[in-house]
Amino acid sequence: MPELKPILLVEDNPKDLELTLAALEQSQLANEVVVVRDGAEALDFLYRRGAHESRNTIDPAVVLLDLKLPKVDGLEVLEKVRADPRLRQTPVVMLTSSREESDLVRSYELGVNAFVVKPVGFREFFDAIQDLGVFWAILNEPPPRRNGE
């Protein structure tokens, strides 16, 4: 049986982080949720650098990526992931409070799988995160890895 892939959550807002983790936990997903707080740390995790150098070699089932991040913003993280043959098929969901059309357009130009505006209401946000977790970690069927990737 294949090992469960982790969910990578890239979020710098403590309240959004707490709520997202609670919603994922309530979904009863068996996947580990790895939390990083900025874009640089997300890239370190994905590329197994720095503090994440010795992590398991299994890439995430999905990256839940905030748009506005310290150090390296979400669009730059997305751009690097999509430019890398080893990571390009990893699903990335932009999870943001931005309602700017330019952010939406740019995210899709760079190859985001989904763009979700964080709902303002607690219940709506909670439900959205639960749905995302279940879809990407359980329901989505990713393409098979090719040799060398």
Helicity range of the residues?
A: 25-40%
- Find the structural class using helix and strand composition: alpha/beta
What is the typical, i.e. mean, pLDDT?
88
Multimerization state: single chain
**Strand line-up across the major sheet:** 2-1-3-4-5
Per CATH, the superfamily is: Response regulator
CATH topology: Rossmann fold
Radius of gyration: 14 Å
What's the main sheet like? 5 strands, parallel
End-to-end distance, in Å? Answer: 20 Å
Number of helices: 5
Q: What is the CATH architecture annotation?
A: 3-Layer(aba) Sandwich
H/E element order: EHEHEHEHEH
How much β-strand is present in the residues?
5-15%
Give the CATH class.
Alpha Beta
List keywords for this structure.
about 150 residues, alpha/beta, Rossmann fold, 5 helices, Sig_transdc_resp-reg_receiver, TCS_response_regulator, phosphoprotein, CheY-like_superfamily, Response regulator
Strand and helix layout:
Blueprint: E1 7-10, H1 14-26, E2 33-36, H2 39-46, E3 62-65, H3 74-83, E4 92-96, H4 101-109, E5 114-117, H5 122-139
Parallel strand pairs: 1-2, 1-3, 3-4, 4-5
Helix pairs in contact: 1-5, 2-3
What do you see in this structure?
This protein is an alpha/beta fold and 149 residues long. It has five helices and five strands; from the N terminus they run βαβαβαβαβα. It has a five-stranded parallel β-sheet, with helices on both faces. Helix 2 packs parallel to helix 3. The radius of gyration is 14 Å and the shape is globular. 28% of the residues are buried.
